[in-house]
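Fold it.
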Amino acid sequence: LEGPADQFGGVIQAILRAGIPVMGHVGLTPQSILHFGGFKVQGRGEADARRIKAAALGLEEAGCFAIVLECMPSALAADITSALSIPTIGIGAGAACDGQVLVMHDLLGWGRTRFAKTYADVRGAMGGAFAAYVKEVKDGTYPGREHGYE
């Protein structure tokens, strides 16, 4: 669930009563990027940092088993992690979180996110493959006889 617990009323409790574990998510919440004005670091100002920490504490109190801390200053993520008794999973939130996650597209170089380390340049490989395909279709070398059925 992305955002503070009070935003969802009894939704968290209803989900938990149904036997479904709930993981919270604070900081940059991608489904709300239009509200934030795009993919921007959250919690840089003191008031914003207090709001995010309060949201994380509220999610823990509501029954979440863990919380994702996304795209926030490392010091804030460390502060939140030390204040919670449940695990935190960082994504662009520094090394003090209990665990780490990266979106596959970022890990493989498709996205261009500052906090993501690129382990393979899939974006470059895919771009080259698409360009070669378009060229061969335009010049008539693809499809060849071996790519069809007789």
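The mean pLDDT is 88.
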